[in-house]
């Protein structure tokens, strides 16, 4: 991770900074984006869009039927689009805050999420500067929890779908845990790829496979007809809503990867512009989530599984679909692991190099990456309930990153110039939403997991 010297001095703004976040005569944030240090393997607009879609559209997409079961056919789409809008708004807040603090402090790079939080809080009023260092550590912790949680869910998704397919062709009943062990090796090898540029073809193939998988899934659900809307809950029991929110935030949230993807682009300005990578990816993701969630719950009702693919019949087309989706999800795993590897490995490698304890840096990094893959594998073995695991990860860490920190940081850097009432109201609402979804959703998911484990 990048660090900034003399962070303690950032509680007061450097000379020449105006209250609007600019420095007299300084370059615009768009110009500054183009001045960032040259990335060794920069990605194009389409390559970055492929990475963003692959990071957003994964196993959570096929859990949307279960999510709509917890919300209802009417409430589900409305809540999904609303949550998606708030998520994207918060992502724009984070991108803007990163550009502003970089411009104010004259940084030679665009700070990542955690560094942005530390710098913005040091610019804030009152006691905010005292919380800056703790906030950076907390955000890095949540980022690692979220991404490693995603990676663990991928183990469960791939194993459960492989088991459903192979059970039709072999007479031996192999436990799902053994399938997790089987997929450990290919996921390990994919994680050894050390830069996003080389992962772009993998993401592109995975995206094509995922889109084809969605089309086939919707076809398989609708080919024999769909039941009438009156057979399903239009608005589910409100006590189920926390599980819905956790799943949707898990499925929609990409705030963990927006900063790394933007900073790896050849033209970072293309990421957050009106028709940039972030907005285009969000629209496409939202349409997919609503479509799959609505059709999945309408078709299977209370019997919908944590992954919609597990509800499909055993036809040849369904089996090809599940194998293809397993390949697509496996292709997503190294992208999700990129963030925690960057957060944890970078300072660790710097420390080892200074101490002279790392004569073979590449081998050491591959060993570290292997250890993270092993950790996510063991975590998946402990909590194999896919739908509940997705809700827990989404509620506990994704909600905090999506809804809690961005409005707080927005307040900090804008406070000197004064904020209009509408911005205060939007920030307060987003912050309250983050607290509610995180607390309520985490409690509900943990309660369900404990009850299910006890029942087993």
Number of helices, where a helix is a run of at least 4 consecutive DSSP H or I residues:
16
Fraction of helical residues:
55-70%
- Rounded to an integer in angstroms, the radius of gyration calculated over CA atoms is 22 Å
Q: Report the end-to-end length measured between terminal Cα atoms.
A: 42 Å
What summary fits the major beta sheet? none
State the shape. globular
The helix/strand series, from N terminus to C terminus, equals: HHHHHHHHHHHHHHHH
> Strand fraction band?
under 5%
| Uncertain stretches of 5 or more adjacent residues | 1-37
Helix-strand makeup class: mainly alpha
Number of strands: 0
Mean pLDDT: 80
Summary?
With 456 residues, the chain is an all-alpha fold.
Describe the structure.
With 456 residues, this protein is mainly α. The protein is 70% helix and 0% strand. α6 (132-166) runs antiparallel to α13, α9 (241-252) crosses α15 and α13 crosses α14 (361-382). The longest helix has 40 residues, at 316-355. It starts with 28 loop residues before the first helix and ends with a helix.
Question: Secondary-structure blueprint of this entry?
Answer:
Elements: H1 29-33, H2 45-56, H3 64-69, H4 75-105, H5 113-122, H6 132-166, H7 176-191, H8 196-222, H9 241-252, H10 255-263, H11 269-272, H12 277-300, H13 316-355, H14 361-382, H15 386-414, H16 421-455
Transmembrane segments: 138-157, 177-193, 200-219, 239-259, 280-300, 320-341, 362-380, 386-409, 421-443
Domain Amino acid transporter transmembrane: 41-445
Region (Disordered): 1-39
């Amino acid at each position: 991770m990048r660090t900034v010297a003399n962070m303690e001095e950032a509680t007061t703004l450097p000379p020449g900074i105006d209250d609007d976040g600019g420095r007299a005569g300084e370059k615009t944030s768009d110009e500054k984006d183009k001045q960032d240090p040259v990335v060794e393997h920069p990605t194009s607009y389409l390559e970055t869009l492929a990475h963003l879609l692959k990071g957003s559209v994964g196993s959570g997409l096929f859990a949307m039927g279960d999510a709509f079961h917890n919300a209802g056919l009417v409430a589900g789409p409305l809540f999904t689009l609303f949550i998606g809008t708030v998520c994207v708004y918060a992502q724009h807040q984070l991108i803007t805050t990163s550009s502003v603090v970089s411009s104010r402090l004259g940084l030679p790079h665009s700070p990542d999420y955690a560094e942005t939080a530390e710098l913005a809080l040091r610019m804030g009023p009152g006691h905010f500067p005292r919380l800056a260092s703790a906030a950076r550590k907390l955000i890095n912790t949540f980022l690692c929890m979220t991404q490693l949680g995603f990676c663990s869910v991928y183990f469960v998704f791939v194993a459960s779908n492989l088991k459903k397919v192979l059970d039709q062709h072999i007479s031996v009943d192999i436990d799902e845990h053994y399938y997790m062990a089987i997929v450990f090796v290919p996921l390990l090898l994919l994680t050894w790829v050390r830069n996003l540029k080389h992962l772009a073809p993998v993401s592109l193939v995975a995206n094509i496979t995922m889109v084809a998988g969605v089309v086939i899934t919707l076809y398989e659900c609708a080919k024999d007809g769909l039941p009438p809307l009156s057979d399903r809950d239009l608005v589910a029991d409100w006590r189920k809503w926390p599980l819905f929110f956790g799943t949707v935030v898990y499925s929609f949230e990409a705030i963990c990867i927006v900063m790394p993807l933007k900073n790896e682009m050849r033209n970072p300005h293309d990421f957050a512009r009106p028709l940039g990578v972030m907005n285009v990816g969000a629209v496409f993701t939202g349409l997919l989530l609503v479509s799959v969630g609505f059709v999945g719950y309408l078709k299977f009702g209370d019997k919908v599984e944590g992954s919609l693919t597990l509800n499909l019949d055993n036809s040849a087309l369904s089996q090809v679909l599940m194998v293809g989706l397993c390949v697509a999800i496996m292709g997503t795993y190294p992208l999700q692991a990129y963030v925690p590897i960057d957060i944890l490995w970078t300072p660790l490698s710097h420390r080892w190099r200074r101490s002279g304890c790392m004569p073979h840096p590449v081998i050491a990094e591959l060993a570290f990456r292997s250890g993270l893959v092993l950790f996510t594998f063991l975590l998946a073995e402990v909590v194999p309930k896919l739908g509940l695991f997705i809700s827990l990860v989404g509620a506990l860490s994704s909600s905090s990153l999506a809804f809690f920190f961005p409005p707080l940081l927005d307040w900090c850097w804008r406070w000197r110039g004064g904020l209009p009432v509408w911005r205060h109201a939007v920030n307060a609402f987003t912050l309250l939403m983050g607290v509610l979804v995180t607390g309520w959703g985490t409690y509900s998911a943990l309660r369900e997991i404990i009850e299910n484990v006890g029942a087993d």
